[in-house]
Specification:
- With 482 residues, this protein is α+β, with helices and mostly antiparallel strands.
- The chain has 22 helices and nine strands.
- Helix 1 crosses helix 15, helix 5 runs antiparallel to helix 6 and helix 6 packs across helix 7.
Length: 482
C-alpha cells in the first residue's frame, strides 16, 4: 500500500528571472522591432516618458541619452597587437577607440538629418494606367485598355491570351479579338519600351522599332529578334551571319542593339517598397589612425522614468499597480542598458580583429568564429549569436551585418589561416582580370591561389565561384564573331 511521505533532496537548478528573460529577448531584436516595442511600452506604461531632445536631462533612471551611454560604456583604451609590440607608434594606437554612446560623429547631434526616400513607389500598372488616362481613346477603348493593363505582369508581359481578355470584358463591353489587338498596339507604344509584349522576341522587336530607321544594324537586329535569338544565346555567330547574309560589321552592330534591349521592361518601373537598414553602431577612423566604435544614438527612442509620477507613489495598497509599472519601467531601462553594453563590446571586438579588412578590403578579412569573440568578451557563444543576428555596422566600406565578419578558415602554406571571405575576394579579382578569350578554369584558379600560399582544392574553388554567382569558364569565354 502506498503511503505519502516527505523527502529532502539537494540540487542545483538554473532559473531565468523575468528580468533576464526580457534582457535576452531585447538583445536579439533588430532595431526596428525594438523601436516598435519601446513605443508600445511608452503607450502602456505611465511610468515611462520620452525625453524632449531640446530639454535638459534630469538625473535618475534614464536610458538612451548621452549620460546613460557614457555610464553603460565608459571610455576605454584598446590596443591592437601591433600597438603592444610598438607602443611608441601613435598611428597604430587603439587608444582613441573609445566606445561611448556620446558620439561626436557626423551622424549624431541636433543637426542630424535622416535621408529617407519615398516608399510610395509607382507600380507598373499605375504607370500604364496614368498614360492610358492621358490618351484620347473613347470610353470603350479605355475599358479595353484597362483590361489589357490588368493582364500585364510586373515584368511587362501580357500573361493572358487576347481571347480571354475579350471574354472578360463581357457583358459590359463587347469587344472582338481585333479590337483588343488594336488597343494593344496603343499600349505597346507606352513607356517603358517593350511593355505589353507576348514574348521576348516581340519585346525586343518593340524596343528596336523605336530606334531611328537610319541606325546602323537596325534591320538586321529586327531580323534577329524575329527568329534568331536562340543562335545568339548559343553564340553561333558564324551560322547566324550566313543565315542573315550580312557582313561581320553589320552583324556586330546588330548584336550591340539586341543586347542593349531590356528583356524585362517592367522592372524599370515596378517599384518594391524599400527596406531600410538602421545601423546599430557606427565605425569611424580617428585622427590618430585608430577606429572608434559608437552606438547609433538615433536607433532607439530616448526614454526615462517619469519622476513626477514616481514621486507620487505611496506605500498604500492603492498604488500597487503603479509600483508594478515602475518596476517594469526600471527593468526595461536596465535591459536596454545591458543590450547597449553587449552590442558595444561585441562590435569593438569585431572591429579590432577585422581592422585589416577596414583598411584594405575583403582580401584582408581574418578568419573568425563565434567562439573567438565569446572568449574575448567573456560571454557565451549563444549570446554572441543573438548579438550578431540582424545587427548592422556602418563603416566607410558600407553597412554590414555583424555576421558578415565571421567566416571559416583555410590553412595557408606558411602555417597561417585565411578567411573564406578573403579567398572569395581573390577569386573575384582573378576572374575580373582574366582574358575574356581564355578564361581561367577552376583548376587554374586553384593553382594560382596555391602559388600565393593558399591551398584550396578545385572543388572548393568551384563552390566559392558558384556562391559568388560567377559562371564556369566555358560560359565566360567570349566567342569572336566570324
Amino acid at each position: 500500500m502506498l503511503k505519502p511521505a516527505l523527502q529532502l533532496r539537494l540540487g542545483q537548478q538554473l532559473t531565468m528571472t523575468p528580468q533576464l528573460q526580457q534582457a535576452i529577448r531585447l538583445l536579439q531584436l533588430p532595431v526596428l522591432e525594438l523601436q516598435a516595442q519601446i513605443r508600445e511600452a511608452l503607450e502602456s506604461n505611465v511610468m515611462l516618458e520620452s525625453e524632449d531632445e531640446a530639454g535638459s536631462l534630469e538625473t535618475g533612471d534614464t536610458i538612451v541619452d548621452q549620460q546613460t551611454f557614457e555610464s553603460a560604456a565608459p571610455t576605454q583604451t584598446v590596443e591592437s597587437p601591433e600597438t603592444e609590440r610598438e607602443a611608441d607608434t601613435p598611428e597604430q594606437d587603439w587608444g582613441d577607440s573609445q566606445v561611448t554612446g556620446q558620439s561626436e560623429t557626423p551622424w549624431s547631434g541636433d543637426d542630424q538629418q535622416q535621408d529617407f526616400s519615398d516608399t510610395s513607389g509607382e507600380t507598373l500598372q499605375e504607370h500604364l494606367t496614368w498614360q492610358l488616362e492621358m490618351s484620347r481613346l473613347d470610353e470603350r477603348d479605355m475599358r479595353i485598355g484597362a483590361a489589357i493593363i490588368d493582364a500585364i505582369n510586373d515584368d511587362g508581359y501580357i500573361i493572358e491570351p487576347l481571347e480571354e481578355i475579350a471574354s472578360n470584358l463581357q457583358p459590359e463591353t463587347v469587344a472582338t479579338i481585333a479590337d483588343v489587338e488594336r488597343v494593344l498596339l496603343h499600349v505597346q507604344a507606352m513607356d517603358p519600351a517593350g511593355v505589353g509584349a507576348r514574348s521576348v522576341s516581340e519585346c525586343i522587336e518593340l524596343q528596336l522599332r523605336q530606334l531611328d530607321p537610319d541606325t546602323p544594324g537596325r534591320e538586321t537586329a529586327l531580323a534577329i529578334a524575329a527568329g534568331y535569338l536562340d543562335q545568339v544565346a548559343d553564340q553561333q555567330y558564324s551560322l547566324l551571319r550566313r543565315q542573315l547574309r550580312v557582313s561581320e560589321e553589320e552583324l556586330e552592330h546588330a548584336l550591340v542593339l539586341v543586347r542593349a534591349c531590356q528583356p524585362r521592361p517592367g522592372s524599370s518601373v515596378h517599384s518594391v517598397p524599400a527596406e531600410y537598414i538602421v545601423p546599430d553602431v557606427f565605425v569611424r577612423r580617428t585622427e590618430k589612425g585608430g577606429w572608434a566604435v559608437d552606438i547609433n544614438p538615433a536607433s532607439l527612442p530616448r526614454i526615462r522614468v517619469n519622476q513626477s509620477y514616481a514621486g507620487l507613489i505611496g506605500r498604500s495598497s492603492d498604488h500597487a499597480m503603479l509600483r508594478t509599472q515602475l518596476q517594469e519601467a526600471r527593468w526595461l531601462i536596465r535591459s536596454l542598458e545591458i543590450r547597449n553594453e553587449t552590442l558595444l563590446k561585441v562590435a569593438r571586438c569585431i572591429v579590432q580583429r577585422q581592422s585589416a579588412f577596414l583598411e584594405n578590403g575583403d582580401e584582408y578579412m581574418q578568419p573568425m568564429i563565434l567562439k573567438d569573440v565569446a572568449e574575448a568578451v567573456e560571454m557565451h557563444e549563444s549570446t554572441i549569436s543573438r548579438v550578431t543576428t540582424n545587427k548592422y555596422m556602418h563603416t566607410h566600406r558600407g553597412v554590414f551585418e555583424f555576421r558578415y565578419f565571421f567566416s571559416s578558415h583555410v590553412a595557408a602554406s606558411d602555417g597561417t589561416e585565411m578567411s573564406s571571405t578573403a579567398i572569395r575576394a581573390k577569386i573575384r579579382k582573378l576572374v575580373a582580370a582574366e582574358d575574356a578569350d581564355k578564361p581561367l578554369s577552376d583548376s587554374r584558379i586553384a593553382e594560382i591561389l596555391s602559388q600565393e600560399g593558399v591551398q584550396v582544392a578545385r572543388r572548393t574553388v568551384a563552390k566559392y565561384r558558384e556562391a559568388l554567382g560567377i559562371p564556369p569558364s566555358s560560359d565566360r569565354k567570349r566567342v569572336p564573331v566570324r
